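User: Round two. Same drill as before: sequence, then structure, for each protein.

Assistant: Same drill it is. First protein:
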Amino acid sequence: MSDGTMEYMGPVRVAIIAASPQVRASLQAIVEAEPALAFLGSAADAETLAGTAPDVVVADNEPEASDALKTLFEPGRAPPALVLLLDDADSDGFLEELPAEATAILSRNVMPAEIVAAIEAAAAGLCVLSPDILARLLAGRKPLRQTASGGPFEALSIREIEVLAMLADGLGNKEIARQLDISDNTVKSHLSSIFGKLGATNRTEAVMLGMRHGYIMV
């Protein structure tokens, strides 16, 4: 049964958008050094790459890149995933400028292996955020989130988000434990923490609150 991710029989086809020729050359070298990836081309703008039909576009510091990605679309073909490399995640316009199509958002100073991992994850339909970007998004320059009871909302950990997603899929404690290779008691501990952080009193309420806070996509 499909889980919503994409599967490729061959290398993931990658195109690069970057204003700097040096950055384009560096990203090209990273892609070409990885057998699982196929370099299609690079340019300073998306229009120049029209007709290349990549699976993933790596855009360096191009918040507006998603608007131009339509030039890379082929009729009847799904749009390419977007791996966005950002220079400054602390600017005031950071959240507003992020393109909706960005499925991987990394700082520009990440290691080559992290870029490769992000490309492969984006191609598989997954979302990737570097730790500093994640922290910035969670903060969002907004007031602290509130629980259902009106108290401060504490963010869930990555593992707790995994457990919450499995709750949403209807899995019981034993199945969650099996899939995550952890004990039943550890699952119970995670659930207790999730309920406490979300202000939930039962599994159904936890799922609903998780959806409200954006931890579960529907």
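Second protein:
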Amino acid sequence: MVFIGPAILGLVIGAIVGVGAAYLLLKPKTEQAQQEFEQALEETRKTTERESQAILETTRQEAQKIRAEAEKVVERRYKDLARAEERVDKRSQNLDQQAKKLEQREQNLNKRQSRLDRQQHRLTSIEQERRTQLEQLAALTTEEAKQLLLADVEKEARQDMARVMREIEDEAKENANRKARELVAMAIQRIASDQVAELTVSVVPIPNEEMKGRIIGRSGRNIRAFEQAAGVDIVVDDTPEAVSVSSFDPVRREVARRALEKLISDGRIHPARIEKLIKDSRSEVNQVIKEAGEEAVYEANVHGLHPQIVQMLGRLKYRTSYGQNQLYHSVEASKIAAVLAAELGANIEVSKMGALLHDIGKAMDHDQEGTHAQLGAEFCARFKVPPNVVNAIAAHHHEVDPESVEAIIVEAADAISGARPGARRESLENYIKRVRTLEEIATSFPGVESAYALQAGREIRILVKPDKIDDLESMRLSKNIAKSIEETMQYPGQIQVTVIRETRAVGFAK
């Protein structure tokens, strides 16, 4: 403790002496630094004043330039306004002058209108006087004269209308007929096929008359067994060396014909043999039908048909219409439809398929109710045939409305194939009946004097009474008769309706 107190005191004294010495040493340097700082501050102040004066001078010069430019713009605007005021004053003066001129014209027009009113009144009076004089001279009132004039105008208008309609129709027919002839001729020229005529009765030749007795059998057992197994009628009559097989079903008739020919050639005729040969013949005919359908599809170049449709199509090989084989007719119609569709820019595949299948209903219409178009459309619809093809099948005899141009092409191809010369035939009785029906339909219309069927019933010419039927009514009459024929008759091809109106004037020189 004795030594610590003096030591601490010594340290304190030493620190005080050190601080004082440091202060004395640093004081001159501090004063020098203070002077230098004040000098730098003074120089900075002077530099700032010089720069501020320069900036103020530059700003003052720019302000003077802007003011000078603004004064120039204002002076220019004043000049523009002055010129605009001068133009407005001139236009105002011109408008005033024009207004004065318009007032003068209006006054002149009022004067002219007054004069025209007086002249119109005077003309009305003169017209009334002349109308009265004309009525007195002609002994007709104004309404009567007007009616006569309207009648004359109507007559002339009807004649002009009939002439124009006839010219338009003649021109349209000429163009349409020329184009149609070209298409039909080209289609028939490119698609020509032979037609096989078949009947509803098949004749089977036999070697001798003794064979008839063997076919009949003891107490008729053989013929009964044959008819029951084949579903046909066997006609054994006085025809020498021939036996007829009769059936409305052409497939059954073909099966029976084949079986009967085998029986005759084999010579062993008894019920068991009959059943076996009919079964074998039925298998053969089914195979022929299948091959015929496949061949028709290949020849028509139609793809994607269900096998059942191809099988049903092959049955048309044994179906005829007016002596025309329906399978060959379908193939021919398909080719014609393809040509027409290509020329008209329609869908060729739909047209070909619709024409090939349009008569498929005839393969089943002998044992089902309904028209062949309806049956064919329903049958094809069951096997996913496209709807536009189904519509073409159903519409080819106008039983439903066609929904596409392909349906109309199918109808046209059917008519071309069926109506061309040599394609079909009909019996004399049906021909006479059809001709008489045509003439009866035509003569049932008022104003018809007589009607004559020509060209095997493909044209009917109608003579009308000229005092009751005019030219315009003649055109209407031909269309009405054609529509009545379409609604009441069934016929192959088309029938031309020609109305003839003739006026004769006869004089005698003495």
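Residues 200-295 form a domain with the Ribosomal Protein S8; Chain: A, domain 1 fold (CATH 3.30.1370.10).

User: Perfect.
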